[in-house]
């Protein structure tokens, strides 16, 4: 088995060398391959990249947001997490309530026009302030629809009932560890049209072997430079938390990607990262006094020995 980070870096190299140039919904363009799998041994260390700094606090607060079943970005903003802002912001700037400068195609324009970028940043700050301080505004424009947390914790059935998939899968792991049905799905075809962003990480499955809990995620679409490092760390953390609750050790995290792509405006950043040397993986420490994953807060996680290379900034494609 390759070291955790080496597997990721080899994926980056493969896409740069063999990826097909494709257009995409954002208008940015990508280099893409279809079908790729990486395996991460969680016994070797926590798989947070060392060739660039990945903010663990943002990974953890987003995962807690999912676990809570929340779909409103207010919780994220309260924890200084801005990774979902653009999708909520877009809903506001296309509405009749918005009266500021034209924000059409703000994702690309903010990268290409310094004057527009200043306007965009000003409007984003107004938006964030309203989300944090105006309950009615937050309800209307902060909610992203039936995204991950909703599907994990409150999947609606055709009869109007609710399924807490996450709670059920934990109970199933505890009662019947050898089952082949330890599955949580975020891909609900009925709800996809009402989501700000249809789930990229669509389905995950747990597997118990010799006292260890492993997880495999199928991800339909992976932004390899910005998104995939977060996804790896997030599901490694989720696996570790569920293993803790179930009295198991973390095993492997396996990531299976559908469309794995590098955006055309991330190529130079990827090359810079590939030129860096690997450093030792950090170790994850979890508050042992808490048992249920539904009780954890940010203060209950500690990442020890994380000494990465500096972060590498890149624009997000919306």
UniProtKB/TrEMBL annotation:
Ranges for domain Thymidylate synthase/dCMP hydroxymethylase come to: 6-318
Positions binding dUMP in this chain are 25, 180-181, 220-223, 231, 261-263
InterPro entries from the UniProt entry = Thymidate_synth/dCMP_Mease, Thymidate_synth/dCMP_Mease_dom, Thymidate_synth/dCMP_Mease_sf, Thymidylate_synthase, Thymidylate_synthase_AS
User: Quick one: which residues bind (6R)-5,10-methylene-5,6,7,8-tetrahydrofolate?
Assistant: 223, 317
Per UniProt, which keywords does this protein have?
Cytoplasm, Methyltransferase, Nucleotide biosynthesis, Transferase
TM segment ranges: none
Top enzyme class, one word, equals transferase
Q: Give EC number(s), comma-separated.
A: 2.1.1.45
**Principal place of residence:** cytoplasm
The free-text function statement in the UniProt record for this protein reads:
Catalyzes the reductive methylation of 2'-deoxyuridine-5'-monophosphate (dUMP) to 2'-deoxythymidine-5'-monophosphate (dTMP) while utilizing 5,10-methylenetetrahydrofolate (mTHF) as the methyl donor and reductant in the reaction, yielding dihydrofolate (DHF) as a by-product. This enzymatic reaction provides an intracellular de novo source of dTMP, an essential precursor for DNA biosynthesis.
What's the protein name? Answer: Thymidylate synthase
Q: Name its species.
A: Virgibacillus sediminis
